[in-house]
Design a protein that fits this description.
Elements lengths: L48 E3 L5 E3 L12 H6 L1 H26 L7 H96 L14 H12 L5
Antiparallel strand pairs: 1-2
Helix pairs in contact: 2-3
């Protein structure tokens, strides 16, 4: 499959908008073994391939699908973008290496101007590759920082959850103990109320006893008091 990698076919991936209708790439059973020829958008074999400046390969009809400028930072930091970009960089480096090998066998009769143009072109390409690699490395550093931050936050959340679970357990235990104390207090109060009710009933029963108007009271120490009366009223009989 021939790909068009001319500068005219390369486009900035941040300047495209969604196209609702398009002709996607070719489907094949062995497409997984042809990862270098898979469209970044439709994930099928490339149809009229176009390669963007960022390194993605798309079908010509899929070019209008990606990407909005508002999402360009997230796109550059995505794992899929970095994977495609690394593949592109590898191919470009191999291509430049092959060009250097070809230049080494060029006859000495080649003009200095041609050598200068090739050197300048190679220098520009290498500079672009280094800049792109800096972007990739920066993106990887950002991803690593985010991963460490998320890991730390996750650990803190786990500790907070564990602490809250322990607090909830202690609170449930205290609630159960409080309920038990309340139940004991209620039982004691019921017993006291029953005792007071019984006493009140006994008092009411005493009040309701009729003696036909006769006053009745209790006299203690009867024998002693009778002896005292005899000595007072009948001293001669003592």
């Amino acid at each position: 499959m021939q790909e068009d990698y001319d500068q005219s076919s390369k486009s900035d991936c941040s300047s495209y908008s969604l196209s609702p209708k398009r002709l996607v790439g070719f489907d094949a059973k062995n497409k997984d073994s042809l990862s270098s020829y898979i469209c970044f958008v439709c994930t099928l074999l490339l149809r009229y391939p176009v390669q963007l400046i960022c390194g993605h390969r798309l079908c010509q009809s899929c070019v209008n699908v990606e990407f909005l400028r508002t999402n360009i930072r997230e796109h550059f930091l995505s794992q899929q973008h970095q994977h495609v970009l690394l593949e592109f960089l590898t191919e470009k480096i191999q291509h430049l290496t092959n060009n250097k090998d070809d230049e080494s066998i060029v006859p000495y009769s080649t003009t200095k101007s041609t050598d200068r143009e090739l050197d300048e072109s190679s220098h520009v390409n290498l500079q672009q590759l280094f800049e792109t690699m800096d972007i990739v490395i920066s993106g990887l550093n950002v991803l690593n920082d985010d991963t460490q931050r998320l890991t730390s936050e996750s650990f803190q959340y786990q500790r907070s959850i564990q602490s809250l679970s322990e607090d909830v357990f202690r609170l449930n235990t205290a609630i159960k103990e409080t309920h038990s104390s309340i139940n004991d207090h209620i039982n004691s109060q019921q017993i006291i109320e029953e005792g007071l009710t019984s006493l009140q009933q006994q008092l009411d029963d005493q009040k309701n006893i009729s003696h036909n108007g006769t006053l009745i009271w209790k006299i203690t120490n009867i024998q002693q008091k009778i002896g005292l009366l005899n000595r007072v009223f009948f001293p001669n009989n003592v």
